[in-house]
Write a structure and sequence with these properties.
By secondary structure, the protein is α/β, with parallel strands linked by helices. It is built from nine helices and eleven strands. About 30% of the residues lie in helices and about 15% in strands. The longest helix is centred in the middle third of the chain and has 16 residues.
Length: about 325
């Protein structure tokens, strides 16, 4: 969005196949939580609806994904985690190593088909914030969560979710040094019009480079930022953005938010988006009543959001 944000006015029509979605601007704004509540707070329509999935959620437990995805339109954004669901949300039920070796293929194939069935764009964030020591797939959890296994896992997820004929998928897996597809069938192909996979560390925590799987297996680079420190990790954000552009990847903020009334952070993020030419999306976390991230008790931050960020969204 150089100059007066002329680029933001250009629309992107991803209307391939039977499931065309509404036209949206090149900059997409989103929310995790209640989009109607957030619209009342900020005026934002929220092109992106962001949700977090435990392992096998939508397949073996919870609402079926083919039913859930249409409720997240125009553009769902799915975070894939390794937690065991409501009964064990803080316990990993599978490791990056197990996924890399094919132990999660049944779920990945299910996701591939569910995404294809929606017929329009879906963003997927596999195991984001991997450099956060609290993540269930951080190396602190054991050898099966090493950066090497994370990179291999990410490549496998990318290949299977994008799909295609079984032979093509197996060739891609072999080139990545991974075992063949466990599920012996052709998969529907999900081109970028239907799927974008986001590689998403926390730049401000550092140590993210060892987790990068290579540009062949990344559609979009993301950074999670929260206004909890005086400097907002500006330098780290600049560094990750520069890295993304060097890899010829667009940039995003799949999660960002303020825990206190901090309009200067909201202004920083808005100005950063305006100044850069390759920001694809920014999704606020979150609009849940009672959450420390909720904008309701933060009038200055809410007003800054409404006056600076909301006008950048031209959804629907």
């Amino acid at each position: 969005m150089k100059g007066a944000l002329v680029a933001v006015l250009a629309v992107l029509a991803l209307a391939q196949g039977a499931g065309a979605r509404p036209e949206v601007s090149k900059l997409l704004l989103g929310i995790m939580g209640d989009p109607g509540r957030f619209q009342a707070q900020t005026g934002q329509k929220s092109a992106i609806k962001h949700v977090f999935l435990g392992w096998q959620q939508g397949m073996t437990w919870g609402k079926k994904l083919e039913v859930y995805l249409p409720q997240l339109t125009p553009i769902p954004m799915l975070h894939l985690g390794t937690g065991g669901g409501p009964r064990a949300p803080h316990r990993a039920v599978i490791t990056p190593q197990q996924i890399a070796l094919g132990g999660g293929d049944a779920y990945l194939v299910y996701l591939n088909k569910a995404i294809n069935g929606l017929g329009s764009l879906v963003y997927v964030r596999p195991m984001a914030e991997m450099n956060n020591p609290n993540a269930l797939y951080n190396p602190a959890q054991g050898a099966g969560s090493s950066p090497d296994w994370y990179r291999r896992m990410f490549a496998r997820i990318f290949i299977i979710l994008h799909g295609g004929p079984r032979v093509k998928v197996d060739v891609a897996l072999k080139r990545a040094g991974l075992p063949f597809l466990v599920v012996k069938e052709d998969l529907p192909a999900n081109a970028k019009a239907k799927l974008k996979v986001i590689w998403n560390p926390v730049a401000g925590m550092g140590g993210w480079m060892p987790f990068y799987p290579g540009k062949k297996y990344v559609d979009l680079v993301g950074n999670d930022m929260y206004g909890e420190g005086a400097d907002f990790s500006r330098a780290a954000n600049d560094q990750l953005y520069a890295f993304a552009r060097a890899q010829h990847k667009r940039y995003s903020f799949p999660e960002w938010g303020v825990s206190v009334d901090q309009p200067e952070f909201v202004r920083y993020l808005c100005d950063f988006i305006k100044a850069k030419s390759a920001i694809e999306l920014a999704a606020y976390f979150n609009s849940i009543a009672g959450s420390k991230w909720d904008l309701s008790p933060k009038p200055s931050s809410k007003q800054t959001y409404r006056s600076c960020l909301t006008p950048l969204e031209l959804a629907g």
